[in-house]
Fold each of these.
Amino acid sequence: MNRRARSYPTDAFVDGEWIASATGRRFEVSNPATGKVIASVADCGADETRAAIEAAEKARYAWAARPAGERSKLLERWRDLLIQQSDDLAALLTAEMGKPLAEAKGEVLYGASYLDWFAAEAKRIYGDIIPSASPNNRIVVIKQPVGVCAAITPWNFPNAMLMRKVAAALAAGCTMVAKPAEDTPLSALAAAACAEEAGIPAGVFNVVPTSRAAEVGGELTSNPLIRKISFTGSTEVGKLLLRQSADTVKKVSMELGGNAPFIIFEDADLDAAINGLMVSKYRNAGQTCVCANRIIVHNSVMDEVALRFREQVAGLRVGPGDLPGSEVGPLINEEALAKTKRLVTTAIEAGAEILIGGRCHDAGPLFYAPTILKSVSADMDVAREEIFGPVAPLIGFQSEEEAIGVADETPFGLAAYFYTKDLGRAWRVAEALDYGMVGVNEGIVSSAAAPFGGVKQSGMGREGSRYGLDDYLEIKYMLMGGLTI
Ligand code: ADP
């Protein structure tokens, strides 16, 4: 039986109300697979953002004062609604973002898993009592919510990147104003509709969609009521937000760009390595910050790896995300396509060879064929920049030391992967790599239970896991005196 898909709001969500922008301005959202406009969304500016911040400030006292168990129950209700509505939310996500429906559904469930995780963590925000040097007093440490938080999220995971911020913030007792990416505001608004339905109180979670990111970002970073900003996106914008947040000394969490090495040692299980590489590279058409960006392969197995990898890539089904069986969708927009084309062209000019792909795909104007480049060297742009497209550059190496050197030769430090069957090497290389996350014989590392985050110019702070709550908590020390008589 064909069920009518649920429809979700397109206005901003401020203080528990769905509002148009004060000027009535709206912006269009289109489906990257077809170019068709699918929605027109309230276009917020600094005024609406300020109203949302003030609503979040007003709501934060009662929210923080609620027993953790109550906050936890509300987060669980929100989780249940995301799961119940996951088919509709996935269809919406695919329509605005382009990823295959199965991946979109996986993302919604992954987003819900952060609510699940932090609903439980909310009840475990422990303090400490520390013996004092004086018998007259005790040192007491409690953890309190930071206050009003801002979230600025990217288009590549429009549901999950938001959920892992808001789940932790609300669990800690903070309130939030979220600004989704202009290409994909609909999933954030749909998540807010579920929050409302779950009974999250007015003002606790607000969403201000906009086509004017700099204006809204300016308000979020300069308003003194915002005590913390959590950003996922490019290193360039992250640096700007850090600078802008300096004047009001905000706490910051930054999940920025990556340039993930994927090392295949000569002793690796090649079947496992290629399977890991396929999901790491071509999930979301290569548009994730933890995607394998440089495939660093021992020279003695290079030909074998190239052959087997090519075979698998040749079998990938490229097409619109809502086409059953589709595995690689479109790129998000023209700029993304232009960047992918530039990186492939400059690599070829510098001596790389195309093993497969290397061109646009006829599924639609924003599709790029899954591509493998051979004979890539570490100094090419395709190896130095974050590709964010379905292009896999293969780089050869001779020694373990050389592989680590190539892997670390980047200002980024988000995720790294390597495959080996040698236990000693597994520990040596995992400890040596200058990255926040390392997959050893695994091509995907993300889960709500694990700390996600990078080092160097990939950012600061961790999301998910028990550590993820710390980013939304302040430590307060209280000296309890007058104990002796
Ligand atoms: P990408 O290059 O992948 O689109 P961006 O860093 O540009 O990554 O985008 C991530 C998020 O940052 C999006 O929500 C986008 O709207 C937002 N953004 C971009 N520029 C600014 C800015 N000047 N101030 C605040 N947010 C911004």
Note: The radius of gyration is 23 Å.
Amino acid sequence: MRKILVIHGPNLNLLGKREVDIYGRVTIDDINAELKKIAKTKKVALEIVQTDHEGEIVEIIGKAKGKFGAILINPAAYTHTSVAIRDAVSAVEIPTVEVHLSNIYAREEFRHTSLIAPVAKGQVSGFGILSYCLGLEAAISLIEK
Ligand code: DQA
């Protein structure tokens, strides 16, 4: 199934204006445009969503089974808190790649723990927009396996 679900978590709609010293000037539209370019070259379809709501992310993941070959997710702050999102990823058994713009291990201690990472196939953290691009490449290779 050459279709990948891309989920941007809370506050990522504010990229470009938000904590630019950490996240840079890149916007969510810039990220999505890069992902669409890669998807076109690799002949995969993307569905891209952004939401600030944990329950909505849980619902979207819960409905993804049978529709998507992989999930690319930046759970943002929910990375560090959400058992519900972790359980959803685990439940649907869709290969999932976790991405972060910043290096979460080089920041405050509360960001060093990802509740999602143990149920994800892998994680890319710290490369800005490139984290998403590398994450998408990884997700594509997972669906091609
Ligand atoms: C983030 C890192 C998280 O700790 C933070 O809460 C975010 C963004 C990142 O992409 O670097 O909102 O996921």
Note: The beta strands are 3-8, 45-50, 70-74, 96-100, 122-125.
